[in-house]
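From the pipeline queue, job 12 of 40. The input is one protein chain; the requested action is below.

Action: predict structure.
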Amino acid sequence: MATWTPIENAKIVGILPDYRLYKQNNSDSSAAKICAQNLVNNDVLGILTARINNNVSEPHDAIIQHIKHMDKIASGEIPPSQGDEYAWASCLKI
């Protein structure tokens, strides 16, 4: 499950404002971990369930990495490279 679905990306981009707030007092990884936990805890529709179940050694790791990646895309720091990323390019510039 390498490519993120449009709805997964929407969930990730939706939490980026919180991620940026957490980054003010935490490392990027710690802030992303807090947000990943919040996404999983509030995933009542099971949108991220398959992604979590496919990464059993560290269930939140894929989400943590993708939060950091999508923040770079949404801020315009890096260009989108695949799938639905193009829809989020520079949408939340810093």
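Job complete. Helices lie at 6-23, 28-41, 49-53, 61-75.
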